[in-house]
Amino acid sequence: MRTRPVDQASATAAARRWDALPQHAKTDAQLIGRRSTGCEGTHGVFPACDFACKPCYHSKDANKVRIDGAHTLAQVEEQMGFLRQNWAPGAFAQLIGGEVSLLPATVHARALEIMHAHGRRPMSMTHGDFDEQYLREIALRRDGSRRFSSLSFAAHIDSTMFGRRGAQKPSTEAELDGHRAAFGEMFDRLRREHGVRSYLAHNMTVTPDNVDQIADVIRSNRRHGWRMFSFQPAAYVGSENRWREGFRTMTGDDVWTQIELGAGRPLPHTALLWGDSRCNRTTWGAFVGDRYVPVLEDDDPADLRTRDAYLHHLPGNYLAEHNPAIKLIRVARLLILRPHLVAIAAGWASRFTRRAGGFRALIRHGVNPVTFVMHSFMDAAVVAPAWALLQKGEIADDEQVRAAQERLQACTYSMAHPETGEVVPACVQHSVLDPAENLALTQLLPLPTRR
Ligand code: SF4
Q1: How far, in Å, is the centroid of ligand 1 from the Cα of 404?
Q2: Is 87 a pocket residue for ligand 1 (Cβ < 6 Å)?
Q3: CATH number of 38-266+378-444: 1.25.40, 3.30.9, 3.20.20, 3.50.50?
Q4: Over the stretch 260-300, which tens digit does the pLDDT of each residue have?
Q5: Which residues belong to CATH 3.20.20 in the chain?
Q6: What CA dihedral angle connects 93, 219, 360 and 344, to 10 degrees?
């Protein structure tokens, strides 16, 4: 029944995912296999992009593939249907490939509908350089009625990208703040005028050139409606023509320190783990005025007990239920069944309120939820041998390749291959599979020849 606290399909899929995790990832903090099966993304559905980023994770043939709505929709249907069969409903899935706004708006909207129909929670991954009219054609039907009650977009906006209208070759992140604000304002107007809500994530590729600008990006933009700030340290993957020297002179700690400066405090990231900590660091929390308050402090035993109770009693993707009323009923039923959780929840709420500066601060400033993420892709040079050996069931002797294998086994971001029956990590997709896949697509969907 839909109002049961634990959705059985989600819990079963999560348990399968847990069984497949490598031992080092099975910690009390792990979310994969308990609260989620992980995130998903499409591939090969619209490989082309009209920007030139350095780096770019897509293979060099991607821009030789024609955008073709019928192909996009057929592939989205197959890939999402496969994920629905193999993993439970409720997973977050990115509509990603090349640049999503090159799709006609009606095709973009239809792709999102297909993803919803397969129980996915779609997020469109874009460079953000599209007109407001395009957004409205996705969100609204011809008669002006809402096609979606809410939309989710991840906008990749940073100074490694070339081709943005009004900022063709930015040399600093600050030059892009106006574009970041304008992007958020489009969605704000959509909500005010048509009641379509949004979840906006800000993505930034980090290189040694812009790492020290992270803190200012957060400070300048955190009031503009972004619910997530996600940072990807640059990796040597995708088109070699777009690589630059020095990506590996910067460590994950260097990047995270800058994120903490932007947040205005240290960010606890070990209380909850999303896969392997070498791939992902995440802090969930909220700004209350200028103060960032994490959901969990990783050095507070009471917070860790709260986490343990939450993960133990709510396996599966229950929060991914669309209907807020059903979500509430699920939680209410759980609390009736396990009344001791009420005291645990009340204790957590009281600690959160105290850390936020008290009840008055909550009333005065409100709660502005913001998640900080660092997702560190791996270099193709280690992913290729790691994956080849994993497919043979072998563990690498080389320390770096073995580390890559451990990370691939705990991967949180996967792509479906119905034709082979596989679900592969995005690192494998971009490092190993994209070149041949895109080459084949250049034959299937050649660009129109010029007369
Ligand atoms: S895509 Fe790569 S970096 Fe990301 S979680 Fe998977 S293995 Fe780790």
Answers
A1: 9
A2: no
A3: 3.20.20
A4: 999 999 999 999 999 999 999 999 999 999 999 999 999 99
A5: 38-266+378-444
A6: 40
